[in-house]
Amino acid sequence: MKVRIKWLDNMSFVGESGSGHSVVMDGSPDNGGRDLGVRPMEMVLMGLGGCTAFDIVLILQRARQAVEDCAVHIEAERADAIPAVFTKIHVEFEVVGKDLSEKQVARAVDMSAEKYCSVSKMLEHSVEMTHSYKIVEKVSS
Fold it and tell me: pTM of the predicted model, to two decimals?
């Protein structure tokens, strides 16, 4: 896996993935940026959310659960000192579907956190991570 980061100007950078996709990152105005893109530390949280959401949906689909939507809400705290690393991360899943089994959703969350999500496994050694979920019943129209 490879990526390339290219400086654009001021504190703006473009990240180019080996799979051919790009994303703009920028700093806040008080750090010389123009607020044109996400912050690098936000990208870490987005990577975590994307990785674990992928797991949740796949695990639930394989368990023949009628999952129709999955959103991941992540809140993180950072150290006051430099480097301002993450000190706490809470990941909350909102899983929408019809007649979803709470046991299966809980299992999917545990499996992602404990086994499958590479980003979670990488961060867990340096950050206090917690997880929760809520199930939203899809109402037939």
Answer: 0.92
